[in-house]
């Protein structure tokens, strides 16, 4: 023939798998199929019309016993020719055939039907006929496949060329005019029943296990239906995807004169109808050529004993003591499904080299030899590649996030790879701390109780005799909790007054930075300050009268908060100008002697007037020390432009002593209050604060002796109690 064999490999993969795996009725050697003929040869008819079914096989029309089936159920038995009037699927079977392909016959009541010729085989031309009940009324017929127009006709048939088995649907429409009005009718869809031209071929072999050196016959069996017996078939044979013999031949048989072991494999055949060009492939048949089996399979390993270091080459040598022909050697490792390698050669030994052996290559190795009698296995040899220790990883495990003094830290060193045993050494600043062994592999640990000297870089080393490996350095910072802080006030509590800028200084003597300091007044948080590098921190506070009380501070570096002891601050509320108050106190002290003398003279004078009835006993003006009577200013009148207003500093006013006598109810005691202020020519607000002393203005009450009537005039009776009493003067009394 003038065309090449089509190799099995050229068949679509899915179809080839189906042909290889799916069982077929033809493969079992059943009779050829019967076939059905229709008379008239149309699968669709109008209701009321008669259709005749004829069942035939390879020999002749079935005049003897024929079985009939309707819709897959047994219908009747009898003659090979019957008449039908009912729609459905019909099949038949004779004594010399298998069941025919079904024929779907429909009887329709529609006005328009689409008919297809029957029988139709693969590659045939099919005639379609669009038929109406009143053909003379039809002007035009249109034919459709899968709802797409394929042709227009007026009254003749429509022909489809070289059809194949598919699921296409066909229908037609007819149109015309009635009383000058157009009309159109549509037929019911139709599927063309295409039968296979010949069944898939079956490969027959004289024997499936020929002896090496003997011949073997192959036969490719198929058949054509009697209606197509004139078609010529060609045949071709294959081993795997290799063409055998001369290629396509009209003979369905092929003889192989001598079979060798390498001829074992999968065999198949193809059948091809020349016109039309239809190719079908048989299922595969496995043929194994028998030969003298191998024996005494042995495996050798280099280096001997299977002791090698990771990265070296491993050589596996497989040999047989007996065996002929081509031997297939294969090498395996336990636990692995796929072989490590395979070689087929006419020799009694073969070797396999595994380059750069790795850790996962460890295991028990063996080989197999096979010359078509089944594999023979060798003994197993264990191979253990020794693996140098990898670079270890050092981890530090502390009981808390920040390691503290007295904590116990675990130094864990582990090499991810390496053959055991592994010795681990631990270093602090390259000074050996100790070692730990891992007999079965894994990691090793070393515990260390921390002191302040243990901050620094740590590392470890792994050694299994194939070269030590050093880890990267890991820093460790040993943290020290803060000690109880000390709070100091500047200026000191005894010197602070309202309006001062008070500095609160908090400092912990020990503790790892950073340290956060908190400042409290009567346990109310004032603020915070950080010391990133350690040491103390300050907080500034502008003092008011409400800032008297207890102060404290806290220190925290994340390892626990420490609170200082309380520091008390006492503040006295003064007027805005302290210069006047201090000056008054100083003048009062300097004039104390003069006050005493003046007081004695006044007492003598009042007593003389009382005896004469000139003055009341309490004196005028006078008040008790418990009263808060403001003394009067001596100075220019209110209209004097130089008199200070309340907004002017009192230091600009010149004050003179004011004296008043008080009697607390005891006629025997007389007190004098002296309030004085020193005139200042410069603004005291500009004077440095350090020149002022925290002293209250001196207000002196002097007890004056009262003369008894029995005493001689001019003589005072001296009380056993103290002669003088100093009482603090409230700030409003100093405005005089």
From TrEMBL:
PROSITE patterns hit by this protein: IG_LIKE
InterPro entries according to UniProt: Ig-like_dom, Ig-like_dom_sf, Ig-like_fold, Ig_Fc_receptor, Ig_sub, Ig_sub2
Residue span of region Disordered: 607-651, 706-736
Transmembrane segments: 579-603
Basic and acidic residues biased stretches: 706-720
Primary subcellular site in the record, as a coarse category: membrane
GO biological process: cell surface receptor signaling pathway; immune response
Keyword RNA-binding attributed: no
Cell compartments where the protein resides: Cell membrane
Domain of life (superkingdom): Eukaryota
Domain Ig-like: 32-106, 199-272, 276-382, 392-479, 485-572
Signal peptide interval: 1-26
Membrane topology category: Single-pass type I membrane protein
Keywords: Cell membrane, Disulfide bond, Glycoprotein, Immunoglobulin domain, Membrane, Receptor, Repeat, Signal, Transmembrane, Transmembrane helix
An annotated Gene Ontology molecular function: transmembrane signaling receptor activity
Gene Ontology CC entries for this record: external side of plasma membrane
Pfam families: Ig_2 (PF13895), Ig_3 (PF13927)
UniProt name for this protein: Fc receptor-like protein 3
Organism, as annotated: Ursus maritimus
